[in-house]
């Protein structure tokens, strides 16, 4: 289902892709599935590029997902650029393997003129529905908005 926020966030993501080699490498297959003001949901089916030497979701991929999705949640407020990270805290709870699909839920808890605060949950999808929790995170970003 389309919304103005979803259309806006998809446009932001499209512009980001050509300018961010790491996002292009890790997240080119990410699918933004919904967005409302302050919230973005996305999914990613894991490939060999997303796993560590043990074949499970790499922690840096989770951290990149936190950075990416938190920034997009901020952009649902009509902002064009997702800002610069000030702090990322990720708690790793579970893991997933190649071929499994994960869901990323990002919330923009507060978007001010210069700082935004987000929380993110990453879980494994089981039969198309959110299953085991893989990671939780908080992410603070510096944003520059006109006064």
TrEMBL record:
Record's keyword terms, sorted: Hydrolase, Isomerase
CDD domains tied to this protein: PaaI_thioesterase
Superkingdom, natural source: Eukaryota
Coiled-coil segments: none
InterPro entries: ACOT13, HotDog_dom_sf, PAAI_dom, Thioestr_dom
PANTHER family named among the record's database cross-references: FAMILY PROTEIN, PUTATIVE (AFU_ORTHOLOGUE AFUA_4G04355)-RELATED, THIOESTERASE SUPERFAMILY MEMBER-RELATED
Keyword Translocase: no
Family: Belongs to the thioesterase PaaI family.
Lineage of producing organism: Eukaryota, Fungi, Dikarya, Ascomycota, Pezizomycotina
Pfam families, per database record: 4HBT
UniProt entry tagged with the keyword RNA-binding: no
Source organism of this protein record: Hyaloscypha bicolor E
Residue ranges of every copy of the Thioesterase domain listed in the record: 55-124
One Gene Ontology term of the molecular function aspect: fatty acyl-CoA hydrolase activity
Name the record gives this protein: Thioesterase/thiol ester dehydrase-isomerase
């Amino acid at each position: 289902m389309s919304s103005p926020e979803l259309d806006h966030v998809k446009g932001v993501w499209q512009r980001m892709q050509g300018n961010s080699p790491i996002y292009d490498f890790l997240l080119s297959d990410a699918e933004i599935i919904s967005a409302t003001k302050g919230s973005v949901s996305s999914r990613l089916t894991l490939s060999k590029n997303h796993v560590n030497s043990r074949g499970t979701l790499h922690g840096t991929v989770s951290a990149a997902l936190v950075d990416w999705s938190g920034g997009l949640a901020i952009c649902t407020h009509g902002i064009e650029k997702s800002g610069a990270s000030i702090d990322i805290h990720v708690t790793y709870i579970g893991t997933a393997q190649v071929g499994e699909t994960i869901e990323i839920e990002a919330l923009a808890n507060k978007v001010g003129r210069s700082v935004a605060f987000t929380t993110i949950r990453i879980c494994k999808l089981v039969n198309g529905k959110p299953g085991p929790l893989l990671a939780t995170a908080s992410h603070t970003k510096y944003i520059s908005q006109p006064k």
